[in-house]
Amino acid sequence: MGLSGGQSGLLMPPLLLLICLQLGTGLERIDYVPQLASATLAGTLTQSTFTLEQPRGQFSRLNISDVDPIWLVVALSNASQNFVAPQRVEDTPVPADFLQKGYFLTLMANRALYPGSQPGNQLRLLRVGNDTGCSPTTRGCNHPLPGPGPYRVKFLVMSDRGPVAETEWSSDTRLQQAEALQTTPGLQSAGTVVIIAILSVLLAVLLMALLGLLIYTCYDTCGSTPISGPGELAFMRRYNPHHVFSRPAAGGS
């Protein structure tokens, strides 16, 4: 039995809503949680970067092609639940949007760089925030992270039709923080003052000893050296004693 025009008109809005919901949930979920690199690796966490393991063999799905870009989504922990995958590459959030949106996309790759087997020298590790030379307004810039976090990351596969697949969010990652020099009141402050006073007294005694040694050296040197100007010359008159020379005999033979 066919539907009348009024009944079909009533069914159209729910049908369109169902189609939109299906399109919105068409993003494939990959059962993979990004992991930090081994803690024994030097520099895994710094004040502006952190290092991830390479997601090897996680993108070998039929609906993912070799040319589909794979992005790393970096988000603040409290902003990860508000992340909305961009529908176009032009809408990709950049590091300059991080303070406003709380997330950005970086480290674009493809699945050929994430093989399931042991790779060569390509992308063994992913260091987030490692590029100090790129502009934060540039798409894909791996700009240093602005604060300690905590941060969460996941991988997002895009295509020319929009987002295709995504992994799970990682656990929270906190960066290292610079330790500020703090002055502890009480005994430590008093001890510091005493040490400074003792060092000041020792320095004064040392300077007095050096000054006394310098004065003694100058006095000793000046007292044992004849005082004469550099232009003064000593003249001596030649004197020949008369008895040294004998007169020749007069009228000698």
UniProtKB/TrEMBL annotation:
<keyword id="KW-0732">Signal</keyword>
<keyword id="KW-0812">Transmembrane</keyword>
<feature type="transmembrane region" description="Helical">
    <location>
        <begin position="193"/>
        <end position="216"/>
    </location>
</feature>
<dbReference type="InterPro" id="IPR024831">
    <property type="entry name" value="Uroplakin-3"/>
</dbReference>
<keyword id="KW-1133">Transmembrane helix</keyword>
<protein>
    <submittedName>
        <fullName>Uncharacterized protein</fullName>
    </submittedName>
</protein>
<feature type="signal peptide">
    <location>
        <begin position="1"/>
        <end position="26"/>
    </location>
</feature>
<keyword id="KW-0472">Membrane</keyword>
